[in-house]
Design brief:
six-stranded parallel sheet; 560 residues; two-stranded parallel ribbon; disordered C terminus; alpha/beta
């Protein structure tokens, strides 16, 4: 869980970073703020706090930070020397065009996309007029670091670079008032969304359980990813009338608490840009990474970002489209060619990652899809060793085979190979248990990469939820802490409190206070326990009896 998931927009609207030259025509309404927020939340804090003087037209032509390490040649010259023929063609493609870069695995797509950004900067495009979208925050950070190494951090920090969601959030923070979005809105993560759904489901179907709530959450998210609103008749093609009622009530709950979920960030930004295109009239170039994983709304956002100049570069590989369950549509590649008839295509064919045998094995599998966009991928390395397929009858036999093979290779190399020279890939984290057991028996040291992230650990989520409730008593996170640690407030009591809150249109917190005052029928022991703690703090202690490994305590004060 993101620790800043409830970061209020009122805390980040101020930007004192820099101003840039006016890029509007004389007869256009100039939005002075349109170029003044290029260092919002998708950039590191140290970059946000740095004051950067604007680039003059001459400086922009070179677009190299004076603090960047001294090098004997320009960034564009070094890039030309490091690119193959097809990469160079994609990087130096003319401006004011639409370009699809089809890049298979290991063909240097990230390097090509970064080089395209450097090329645009060298052609006089101001960094704050370039939008670069990535699929993950990690990818955005890595891309920013690599661009900063070429042109310096002050120039790299001015790029509008991040995920679709983070970029959308920036525009909503700055211009959300234009579509009536309240200031100080909070972002509902998956846990919050499920809480809102749970509250709604209890109204629509009192017999619903957690699985029903998750199903409803996924159904609503899929509809939002296709830009389907609760009032849309076309929604009935995807779901039932009852689900549409849940969808509508869910949106009402979000609005009442001043929350937007992740899908709403994109939908609200799309609404903003459709009704106020001047907001992005400064944008001169839009670049999209992992285009095959974009959904309908993200595709529309790409077009809206590029409304003024239609200078679009996308990088993608339809063979790697694996997020259809999240409403991703690899058909966006063909949709773009239909919407932009002059779209050009450059295919990157040289694979720099895999040996010939591995690449040929992968191609033999993927080429069985007769409807795929045909493209060639050629190995840059030699043939290498043949892949081995070992059909195991069960996970334990498979684990023993893996460990024996590691031991064999270590012995064969006379100890030159060490345990850290091996990597074991699994489809799911739950599949590591037999392998870990066999590695332990063999005395081979190992470490698990991935697994539960810090913010996904149950005790951390619980502590964060306490902090959230202290900040906002209206938060749905209250449902998560109301009986953690155990206070004797079971499902029956929670249902009574929830029903009272819904019946009288009050927050759950107020329903609890009314229960303490005797206005809601509750267990006398619960009322006494709650009244002792109602004077100005929320507190808890957790240990092994509560299902946690360590011992934790928290004492949170607030003003009454």
């Amino acid at each position: 869980m993101d620790p800043l998931r409830h970061y209020s927009s009122s805390q980040s609207v101020k930007d004192t970073s820099f101003e840039v030259e006016d890029v509007y025509e004389d007869d256009e309404l100039t939005l002075q703020q349109s170029n003044s927020f290029a260092q919002a939340d998708v950039f590191p804090l140290q970059e946000q706090q740095r004051t950067v003087s604007p680039l003059s037209p001459d400086d922009t032509k070179v677009a190299v930070d004076k603090k960047a390490p001294h090098r004997s040649s320009s960034p564009t010259h070094r890039l030309r020397l490091s690119l193959n023929e097809r990469q160079l063609r994609a990087v130096t493609f003319p401006l004011q065009s639409q370009l699809q870069i089809l890049a298979g695995p290991g063909t240097g797509k990230t390097k090509t996309l970064i080089s395209r950004v450097i090329f645009l900067l060298s052609q006089g495009v101001h960094p704050s007029n370039i939008i670069v979208t990535t699929f993950t925050v990690k990818a955005a950070n890595e891309m920013r670091e690599r661009i900063a190494a070429m042109v310096g951090p002050s120039v790299a920090s001015r790029l509008v670079l991040g995920t679709f969601h983070s970029i959308a959030r920036r525009y909503l923070i700055k211009y959300g008032y234009l579509i009536g979005l309240p200031t100080g809105f909070q972002i509902a993560d998956e846990t919050d969304a499920l809480h809102f759904i749970q509250s709604v489901m209890k109204e629509v179907d009192p017999e619903s359980d957690k699985n029903d709530c998750r199903h409803a959450r996924n159904a609503i998210s899929n509809m939002k990813s296709r830009a389907i609103q609760p009032s849309s008749l076309s929604a009935l093609e995807y779901t039932t009338q009852e689900m549409m009622q849940v969808y509508s009530l869910y949106q009402d709950k979000l609005a009442e608490a001043n929350f937007l979920d992740f899908d709403d960030l994109l939908l609200k930004c799309m609404e903003l840009l459709r009704t106020n295109p001047l907001v992005v009239s400064n944008i001169q170039a839009v670049l999209v990474d992992e285009f095959q994983d974009t959904n309908v709304v993200q595709y529309q956002l790409m077009k809206l970002f590029a409304t003024r100049r239609s200078n679009i570069t996308i990088v993608g590989d339809p063979d790697q489209s694996i997020y259809a369950f999240r409403a991703a549509e690899s058909t966006n590649l063909m949709r773009m060619r239909q919407d932009f008839q002059d779209t050009s295509v450059v295919s990157l064919e040289e694979n720099y990652r895999s040996s010939g045998h591995i690449l040929n094995a992968a191609l033999a599998v993927i080429q069985q899809d007769t409807e795929r966009i045909q493209k060639t991928v050629l190995p840059n390395h030699d043939e290498g060793h043949m892949p081995v397929f070992f059909p195991a009858r069960n996970p334990y036999i498979e684990a023993r085979h893996i460990v024996k093979e590691i031991q064999r290779l270590i012995d064969f190399s006379c100890g030159m190979l060490k345990p850290h020279d091996f990597a074991i890939l699994v489809r799911s984290a739950r599949l590591t248990r037999p392998i870990e057991s066999e590695l332990t028996k063999a005395g081979i040291d190992y470490r698990i990469v991935g697994g539960f992230r810090f913010w996904e650990r149950e005790e951390i989520k619980l502590l964060v939820n306490y902090l959230v409730v202290v900040k906002s008593r209206r938060s749905p996170a209250l449902l998560d802490i109301i009986n953690s640690p155990r206070r004797g407030i079971g499902s029956v009591m929670q249902a009574a409190l929830l029903n009272h809150a819904n019946a009288y249109q009050v927050p759950i917190w107020d329903a609890i206070q009314r229960a303490i005052d005797g206005q809601v029928r509750v267990n006398a022991k619960v009322r006494a326990s709650s009244s002792e703690r109602s004077g100005g703090y929320v507190g808890c202690s957790m240990g092994k009896r509560d299902g946690f490994e360590g011992a934790y305590s928290i004492f949170l004060c607030y003003s009454t």
